[in-house]
Write a structure and sequence with these properties.
37 strands, Rossmann fold, binds beta-D-glucopyranose, 839 residues, Immunoglobulin-like
């Protein structure tokens, strides 16, 4: 073992440190100590490393809640800027957020691809395109690791959907694996030297991702010569020896899990070589060394950065607002945007539930607890003052949500929240406490036994009238308030514990209650529905040691309570009236965490509720209509030809409301380009289904023809908007293109002229349409440029050679593409500006 770490005055080889440990000590280091920390080992100077999610902010050492941390724009907005500088800045900011909390490893970026637009978790991942994904990831990793925080590329690999994610088997060709799904990992390893990766939940071609000798040992550590660490996704490890031999270095979370004593036994039985364990430990020590967590023999521990910007500081606000706005995409505009801000007192009707309840992040493990949130209503009012008239729109959520804590008062403390009592099977009181949120975790780990009954008591902050009351979480519920009773039996649906945890069953009803009514909600928990019992279904084929069987939580249990919503008919009529009374209507529509979440996929791209009707009625009533789409992923737009402009605003983070307002008025130009093609209809995409078949297989039959590659080849009707499309507020003329062989490969230079009256930014995209019929068109390079009004700039785009090869399955090797083909200089493949034949 040759790695060396400098200490004060001399060098200690990492291998020597490994050799100082017994087998049991080594194995102990290879499973987490808690949900997000590792065990340290003082005698070799190994600090207990701390990990945190993730892609939209550094939440800290908890799954739920935690301290207030900066909430970033969704990954789709970061990639949408097509700008390495932005992605690198995000990486630096994530590192600062991590350092403030003494976190060594941030669990991100997520670099799975948008294979089908139904994927629930796409908001966390960059794009349908592997090159844009790999380049954005590389820049983000450079930013993070350049300031000493390890990135963790996830999820290795072929994890593009959520349905039955712990059990499904992604079946794909070696060609698709190499050319598409591994490419972002390869790029972030080669171009940014990422220090860690996370193995996915799913199987890949019949072998669990955590046991992928072919991918982990063969390709990533072998062919790429990568010296980093691979950790499991949380509870993903399915078998002991197979994962240790298959290249997994670290099991998360801990304690517990399938390694520990079982792995020691496997080594003693000769099923796993001790040298394999040594290699895992060596990689762990190397990671620790890189993040300043290894201080053998007197070496000084890494000092954590001081004086970092606070989560709500002006610096952070400026960054988060600018980054969000830059990634937003103008997909249609007949000149109505940007909104006129000077010399007019024309009223602007701002309409829709998302305008007053802006969705700033998706659901799942990426969720953070932001210091504040900003709605589009607040943001636009801050810029346009009382020109803005706001009107609510129809409901957008089908599932009830947990109560706003401000609506609840704990009768015992008089403070916001509720009183919680947990009882055991014999009625014994196990715990009694105040909760300042409406959600509790029912977990017996620290109580000595599993509670079977929870009683939640709260007084509603309410003047009397209709209230929506209910609950989230599996169990038999009984709610009593002012002499009225509600009951419901909620059962876990599906067998995926992640889904059970993140999307618990729910119910809610509207009841009339007097002012300040006290609600007593009692839930009896039926042990038969605990996930570990569901998981023992033989069809799922889980081994006895599977880590999933330790995931015993029943998930979120919460009280639902809030003012009863106004009926949709009333809201639609009021919205229409508001539109008719204003010169311009801005309608905000979108998705919620019901659709954009980890652990569940979508079934349709249609906007939920009656939002399409809202846009249609507003467009008929208003003189001018602008639609803002508050969603990270494609939605259908049956009303597109009736509106004047559409801005795709993504899930814009804590500064989201201000960022949308700045984009609408042009205070910040929305320079984004779409990171995914937007289908014209449900099903009209080269890859669509996300539900595995009876054998739990999900076939990636689309091969390397996903997204724009597949549309271009005619595998689906043309999309509504192509990947790469985005108008910004400039207008552009392209000159002739020069292509030549540069030092690092093919380069294309083109002059672009900003023919508009404002300074703007153009993103020159270069696609390669290969000569071979079986090869899809693909993005091979892009370069952004800021150009003053009326000026011309020469832009050189370097084409990445990794996109100019094909995987030869017969030879088991890369081969260059055939000579010929064409370079397309395009603003998305729907707007090709020049074609250059290649020799
Ligand atoms: C997710 C990971 C995440 C982990 C820890 C899992 O559910 O798939 O991406 O990092 O939880 O929260």
């Amino acid at each position: 073992m040759t790695d060396a770490t400098p200490t004060s005055g001399r060098t200690v080889r990492l291998g020597e440190l490994v050799d100082r440990l017994s087998l049991a000590e080594k194995v102990h280091l290879l499973t987490g100590a808690t949900a997000f920390t590792l065990p340290g080992h003082e005698t070799i100077g190994l600090a207990p490393l701390a990990f945190s999610d993730g892609p939209t902010g550094v939440r800290g050492l908890t799954f739920v809640g935690g301290d207030a941390v900066a909430l970033f724009p969704s990954a789709t907005l970061i990639a949408g800027s097509f700008d390495d500088g932005i992605a690198e800045e995000v990486g630096r900011m994530l590192s600062e957020e991590a350092q403030r909390q003494h976190i060594h490893v941030v669990l991100g970026p997520t670099i799975n691809l948008h294979r089908t637009p139904l994927g629930g978790r796409l908001f966390e991942a960059y794009s349908e395109d592997p090159y844009l994904t790999g380049r954005t990831a590389s820049a983000c990793v450079r930013g993070m690791q350049g300031s000493g925080t390890a990135a963790c590329l996830k999820h290795l690999v072929a994890n593009e959907s959520e349905t039955l994610r712990n059990f499904m088997d992604s079946r794909l060709s070696e060609t698709a694996l190499r050319e598409l799904y591994l490419l972002p990992f390869e790029m972030a390893v080669q171009d940014a030297g990422a220090w860690s990766m996370m193995a996915a939940y799913n199987d890949v071609n019949g072998v669990p991702a955590t046991e992928q000798d072919h991918v982990q040992n063969g390709i990533v550590k072998g062919e790429w010569g990568w010296d980093g660490l691979i950790m499991s996704d949380w509870f993903a490890t399915k078998r002991t020896a197979a994962s240790a031999n298959g290249g997994l270095d670290l099991v998360m979370p801990g304690p517990g899990g399938p390694w520990g004593k079982r792995l020691v036994t496997a080594v003693r039985a000769g099923e796993v070589a001790e040298a394999t364990i040594d290699d895992h430990v060596l990689r762990l020590l190397r990671l620790a060394e890189r993040v300043g967590g290894l201080t053998p023999e007197g070496r000084q521990p890494r000092p954590w950065a001081q004086g970092l910007p606070a989560v709500d500081s002006p610096v952070r606000k400026e960054q988060l607002r600018r980054i969000a706005a830059r990634g937003m995409t103008v997909v249609a505009n007949n000149g109505v945007l940007p909104l006129v801000t000077e010399g007019t007192d024309d009223a602007v009707a701002l309409i829709g539930r998302h305008a007053i309840d802006t969705v700033d992040m998706g659901g799942g493990s990426a969720v953070v607890n932001p210091p504040y949130r900003s709605t589009i209503a607040e943001g636009l009012a801050a810029l346009l003052g009382d020109r803005v008239r706001t009107a609510d729109g129809p409901a957008v959520r089908a599932r009830p949500v947990a109560a706003d804590p401000a609506f609840l008062t704990d009768p015992a403390t008089g403070t916001p929240g509720m009183q919680v009592v947990l009882r055991g099977a014999d009625g014994t009181e196990l715990a009694r406490y105040h909760s300042d949120t409406p959600a509790i975790s029912i977990d017996g780990d620290h109580l000595g036994q599993d509670p079977t009954v929870a009683v939640l008591t709260t007084a509603l902050v309410h003047d009397g009238g209709p209230v929506r009351l209910g609950a989230l979480g599996a169990g038999r519920w009984h709610l009593a308030a002012a002499g009225q009773e509600l009951t419901a039996e909620l059962r876990l649906e599906g067998q995926d514990p992640g889904e059970a945890m993140l999307r618990p069953p729910a119910f809610a009803e509207v009841v009339e209650l007097p002012a300040a009514a006290t609600v007593t909600a009692t839930v009896a928990l039926d042990p038969a529905v605990r996930p570990e019992n569901l998981l023992r279904d033989p069809a799922l084929g889980l081994a006895e040691e599977s880590h999933l069987l330790e995931m015993t939580t029943l998930g979120r249990t919460a009280l639902v309570a809030g003012p009863a919503p106004r009926p949709d008919d009333e809201l639609l009529a009021a919205a229409e009236a508001a539109a008719a009374a204003a010169g311009t209507a801005v309608v905000v529509v979108g998705l919620t965490e019901d659709q954009e979440t980890e652990a569940a996929d979508k079934t349709t791209l249609a906007l939920p509720g009656r939002q399409d009707e809202l846009v249609t009625r507003v467009a008929a009533a208003a003189e001018r209509t602008v639609v803002v789409v508050n969603a990270a992923t494609p939605v259908l737009m049956p009303w597109l030809d009736r509106v004047d402009a559409v801005l795709v605003a993504g899930l814009p983070g804590q500064e989201g409301g201000h960022a949308v307002a700045a984009a609408l008025t042009g205070a910040l130009e929305p320079t984004g380009r779409l990171v995914t093609s937007w289908p014209a209809a449900d099903g009209a995409a080269p890859a669509w289904d996300v539900v595995p078949d009876g054998d739990l297989a999900l076939r990636y039959d689309d091969g390397t023809f996903i997204g724009h590659r597949g549309y271009h080849a005619g595998h689906a009707p043309a999309p509504l908007f192509w990947f790469g499309h985005g108008l910004g507020y400039g207008s552009w003329e392209y000159g002739t293109v020069q292509a030549r062989a540069g030092e690092s490969g093919l380069e294309a230079t083109v002059e672009v002229t900003n023919t508009s009256a404002r300074n703007s930014r153009e993103t020159v995209q270069v696609y390669l349409d290969p000569a071979e019929d079986d090869q899809p068109v693909r993005l091979v390079g892009y370069q952004g440029v800021d150009v003053p009004a009326g000026a011309t700039a020469a832009v050189t785009v370097r084409c990445d050679e990794r996109l100019r090869r094909r995987w030869d399955e017969a030879a088991g090797a890369w081969a260059p593409l055939a000579a010929g083909g064409e370079l397309l200089i395009a603003r998305g493949l729907g707007d090709v500006r020049a074609r250059v034949p290649l020799p």
